[in-house]
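Entry: Transcriptional regulator, IclR family
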Amino acid sequence: MKSLRKTSAVLDCFTREDRRLTLAEIAARTGLPKTSVHRQLAALREIGFLVQDGRRDAYRLGFRLLALGGVVLADIDLMRHARAPAETLANQSGEAVHICVFDGRNVVSIERREMEAASNEIVRIEREPPHCTGTGKAILSTLSDADADRLLDDLPSDGALPRFGPNTITDRVRLRRDLTVCRARGYAVDDEERNPGVRCVGAPIRRHGQVVGAISVTGPAARFPDARLPVLAEMVMATAAKIGLNLER
């Protein structure tokens, strides 16, 4: 509990006016020893809550905090406005539909819709890395290559991205090319990259131009031949646009 209070005290030092602070400034504001502050800063930087500006040895709040805040908001608004369109998409496509948000490190599935009502009674909060899922790549494709690279740097790896099957894209250059294609056509395809034998088509959900999540249809690869992908993509993108409009009302 004492450590959590120290963590909270460090984060509370940052304001709209003081967005970048040095170790000395944070120690002065919290009244904590510099050694203790240094440990807190290192831990917060490790999990993405803080980013260090090497040019002036200052720290600023990390993207992950913003993303986690977005998860909370999306969990409330997105689920409410997406449920009916997602159910319609599940009925139209005959496939499982997932609504996801991004927490700054992983894609978080917050809603699932299937044709069989019983399957919708158990909705698990699932976290998956973004480089190998349809929803994750859809969200990554809305970012610049530099921002996408910074987010992927948080994934545990030895330089290559984590592999989950023979089709997982582990090379960052190849992933960048794939995201360029996703960006141009407006949707992403998980070609058995997360789970062998499963394909997925995902599209980003925007509110006033800002990406707040993604939606996808997922099913056995045998039901997702190449010829069917554009048809599913049109359904997914139309549903994403409808959810976005609902969120803006």
